[in-house]
Amino acid sequence: MVFHVLTIFPDFFRGPFEHGVVARAAAAGKIRLEVHDLRNWTTDRHRTVDDRPFGGGEGMVLKAEPIFRAAEAIFPERGPARRIILMSPQGRLFDQAAARRLSRLDELLLLAGRYEGVDERVAERLADEELSIGDYVLSGGELAAAVVIDAVARLLDGVLGNQDSALRESFGGGAEGPGLLDCPQYTRPAGFRGWQAPEVLLSGNHEEVRRWRLEAAIEKTARMRPELLEKWKSRVER
Ligand code: ADE
Of 65, 74, 96, 180, which is most buried with the most CB atoms under 10 A? Predict the structure, then answer.
């Protein structure tokens, strides 16, 4: 799968994508990352990407024209397996189901917004969708784009050593909807500062371990994310 990002801070992506799962997937040829500098599609001497908002107000707005020109150069042809997504706090919430849906595409172009906003014609006339990674405002869409790429890349075949783990863990509940949060995990030493890891995990009894993990996942989901537990219950009761 090919991930494109359009940004005014191309260097931003050096750090996040030089480590871990995404870097290994790129090295193995499972994904390709292409970071595009928005200023390359400006036409004036100052390489202007933003301007003051019509109607007045604070801050600057990213201009539509360079973004359209860039997107049309990166995707000369559009199609169902190529999507353009604007990252913004006004978008629909990104979740594991969205990550799964995007992981079926061939190519994804993520537009990282900046400043006080992006000319609305980008959302209305260029992007296939607008996504937010959470109900808080970041200073730009770069971090959000990196989050989406990480969450999608790890779902691709052959990217995680054990494909199973992408399914089993938190939110992995399959196409039907969200699952439970992941169960608590422990590793050696069994006793740490007087706090013992649960005895059953050391017992070697796989059936009891499985049962404990499900109960612990339910308990933790109830405590941390009660709304997820309700969704999960209504699904397993069906
Ligand atoms: N840009 C600024 N805040 C954002 C958010 N919460 N999600 C996606 N893009 C953003």
Answer: 180
From 5, 94, 111, 137, the mutation candidate for ligand 1 (largest count of ligand atoms within 8 A of CB) is 137
pLDDT in tens, 200-224: 999 999 999 999 999 999 999 999 9
Asked if 55 and 127 sit in the same domain, the reply is yes
Q: Are 229 and 137 members of one domain?
A: no
Measured from the CB, is residue 144 less than 6 Å from ligand 1?
A: yes
Q: Say how many Å lie between the CA of residue 14 and the centre of ligand 1.
A: 19
Nearest alpha carbon to residue 158 among 21, 6, 17:
21
CATH of the domain at 214: 1.10.1270.20
CB burial string 143-176: b at 16+ within 10 A, e below: ebbbbbbbbbbbbbeebbeeeeebeeebbbbeee
Q: Is the pTM of this model over 0.90?
A: yes
Whether residues 183 and 231 share a domain: the answer is yes
